[in-house]
Design a protein that fits this description.
Radius of gyration: 43 Å
Strand content: 35-45%
Number of strands: 25
Mean pLDDT: 93
Low-confidence stretches: 1-24
Structural class: mainly beta
Length: 342
């Protein structure tokens, strides 16, 4: 009976002794990820590592990030290429821990060690570690980590004296880029609303403007419009070519320069205004007067310096005669050309 009693007492003491010890158990990190800027083999990449630490990080404890052997951490990588955040709050880093400042160093070609200073990280905190040019807190990072030379799943280990452990798997690809191609066909819009306009009967005592009728209009009106548009990188030019009003050997003098209408003086000319797109009328056809610079034909009437939605050019014509202008049936043929500059 005494022997059995001693055994029970001894067992009770052993259980009490073990229960009084402060034994630390490693916990597994959770919600862990690593987002790479590139997952292509043998390519420089940034890393954005995140995980939840169940037990936190006490003062002086370390977090060690160990990459597989075929990763390569640039030998010149320092704390300036690393950001560490605790629950989205940026931590101050240096080469060695001091006070609230953490130490962050490349301890080998595959290992980065972070050492807490004197500010504990609480249990359940989300740790975020940026490595590479994505580090921007104290300075913009310049050094990165070279991906493995082989493709496949690679496990990055999280360990250290902070007792939490775990792995984060990333997938390295032979090529992580997709080449996408497309073609935009060239386009040029060019139309003339009316190919037969006229002045009707001219008079030396009144100005005459061409109309679609064709008949003389006492006031300036649009005889027709020309629409031009293109997706050409250097835009387009539109020119006009032809002759003044002619009847056999007789002609009505044209305005070489932009000139206002003058009743009783021979004149033939045109001008235009532009709406829409980026096209513009050029001299001498852009002013309020009229011109027909046949010496420069084919003469530039309008232009766009770059791609343009449709521009509508409203074209107006003037014809004035002198009392001595020869009688006859006068006509002119004008040729408009739009050239896209692809």
């Amino acid at each position: 009976m005494k022997k059995k009693l001693y055994l029970v007492i001894g067992l009770s003491l052993f259980i009490f002794f073990v229960g009084g010890l402060k034994i630390g158990f490693a916990a597994s990190i959770s919600v862990a990820s690593d987002t790479l800027s590139s997952q292509k083999v043998n390519t420089l990449a940034n890393h954005d590592i995140q995980f939840t630490s169940p037990t936190g990080v006490a003062s002086g404890q370390t977090i060690i990030i160990t990459f597989p052997a075929d990763f390569s951490i640039d030998a010149a990588l320092t704390f300036t290429d690393i950001d560490v955040l605790d629950d989205a709050v940026q931590l101050t880093l240096a080469a060695a821990p001091s006070g609230a400042t953490w130490g962050a160093v490349r301890t080998s070609g595959t290992v980065i060690t972070l050492t807490n200073g004197t500010t504990p990280v609480g249990a359940g905190s989300v740790m975020r570690i940026k490595i590479g040019t994505n580090a921007t807190n104290q300075s913009v990072g310049v050094k990165q980590i070279t991906n493995t030379t082989t493709n496949g799943a690679k496990a990055i280990a999280i360990s250290g004296t902070f007792t939490d452990t775990g792995t984060i798997t990333v997938q390295i690809l032979t090529d992580d880029q997709v080449a996408v191609t497309a073609t935009v066909d060239q386009s040029l819009t060019f139309s003339i609303s009316d190919n037969a306009i006229g002045f009707g009967s001219l008079s030396s005592s009144a100005a005459c403007f061409a109309s679609p009728s064709p008949a003389c209009s006492a006031s300036e009106i649009e005889a027709h419009n020309i629409i031009v548009g293109t997706n050409a990188g250097s835009g387009y030019t539109m020119t006009v070519n032809g002759t003044t009003l002619t009847s056999g050997a007789f002609t009505i003098s044209a305005n070489a320069a932009n000139t206002a209408s003058t009743v009783g003086v021979e004149q033939f000319g045109l001008r235009a205004t532009a709406t829409g797109g980026v096209g513009a009328v050029v001299a001498p056809y852009a002013a309020a007067g009229f011109a027909f610079d046949s010496a420069a034909f084919p003469d530039q009437l309008a232009t766009a310096a770059g791609p343009s939605a449709n521009t509508t050019y409203s074209v107006r014509y003037i014809a004035n005669i002198a009392p001595q202008t020869e009688a006859g049936s006068y006509s002119a043929t004008l040729t408009y050309v739009a050239t896209a500059n692809f």
